[in-house]
Amino acid sequence: MTHLRERGDSVQARLLRALEAGPDNPAIAFVDSRGAFQWQTTQRLFDDALAFARGLARRGLSSGDTCVVVSANDETSAKLALGVLLSNAVLLLIGLPASLDAQQRLAFAKRLAALSRKVGSRLTVVPRELQPVAESLGEGIAFADFVRNGSAGPAPATQPSAHDVAVLQLTSGTTRSPRVCIWRQEQLLSSLDGAARAINLQRSDICFSWLPLYHDMGLVNAFLLSLTQGIPLALLSPQDFVRRPCLWMQGISETRATVSWSPNFGFALTTRQVHDEELRAVHLDHVHALWNGAERIHMETVRKFEQRFASLGLRPGTVKASYGCTEYVGGATFGDPTQPMGFEVVDAEPLRVQGIARPVSAGAKASAGIAIASVGRAAPRTRIGIFSPRWRPLPDGQVGEMVREVSKGSAGLPH
User: Fold this and answer.
1) 118: Cβ–Cβ under 8 A, 6 or more apart, which residues?
2) What is the dihedral of CA 396, 320, 189, 73, to 10 degrees?
3) CB under 8 Å to 295, separation ≥6 — which residues?
């Protein structure tokens, strides 16, 4: 392997160090719609990713260029995304909506072409499903199944610096039209370090994820965190999870995963739709934490989930809370990994009208209160503040804008 001439720490340098540290270690598994999977070694994963990197280079992608990848959340998408990063290019992952008709495909292609122009993409890689509307995709288009070269090329000898852009990410569009966020190397590394420490990630852990790679929780907290730290990662497509939620619990059991991530709706869907006959061989006593984030956390969802799967060995308090968003590059706060999730019941009316969280008195009616989940403390080397629209710091118990400040520094997992 080419030895690194680093200009400081970078995601790429960490990825390659993980390869050097354990080329024969299990790195990734792709769980299919039947729940079948096979672990691939770190060497196999990186060989395939570097073959994609070589194919991208043949199509003109160079270090520092932006590459848009339309992800189908499959093995090709994951290895292609890793190949873009190992090319020292700037990655922007876009989700491909499911079940597009001809008119919807054309509209998506036009939006994709506009976005590629906006971010100055040198190359946009799309799945074969978009071939019928190829003319609408603009210039610099390649199809994912034709990108991979037959052999892996060497990783670039010089790695990015701390201030270089690592990844572009679209916001979710929950409150406004999606915007492009710029993640620099130092920001991304700080988030990865903070998450590893906050959840007490160990080298013996195994991660299972059904989250899409174009979502920051799936990309940062599952994909990049696992690969940079040398943690085995099992990936299930979100489409297969939604069709068969039992695959999440079955997959955690079969892969012996100790940590997983999901928005609140995933816990609710699994509790509601998984049947007893689908759980006959499932054991969950090895699970350390199932992290709930990316949307509002409901107390009843957490309680019903833990009660539903307690007979399979799931310990009370296994579901933990986290908070983050694209602008924060993954998680900003995390619950205590050793304690159950906490909730506070506040008066619904002042919260709705005045933006004030006031605890409900002991004698109040249940309908007067709303349960708010504690999302824990700020990640290590992170300070959190709540501010008014005029950027004045607010006291405890008032609703405002969350601001995150990250200090410099890096850390790895405990040995």
Assistant:
1) 180
2) -130
3) 263, 264, 265
CB atoms within 10 A of CB 95: 16
Of the candidates 94, 66, 83, the one whose C-alpha atom is nearest the C-alpha of residue 149 is 83
- pLDDT tens digits along 76-118: 999 999 999 999 999 999 998 877 888 998 999 999 999 999 9
375-412: pLDDT as tens digits: 878 777 777 788 888 888 888 888 888 776 665 544 44
Q: Which residue has the tokens 């710029």?
A: 182
List the chain domain ranges.
Answer: 1-341, 342-403
- CA 132 to centroid of chain Cα atoms: 30
pLDDT in the model for residue 253: 98
Residue 171: which residues within 8 A CB-CB, separation 6 or more? 178, 179, 181, 325, 326, 327
Task: Find out whether 172 and 183 touch, Cβ atoms under 8 Å.
Answer: no
Domain 1-341 has CATH 3.40.50.300: no
Q: Whose structure tokens read 């940062």?
A: 220
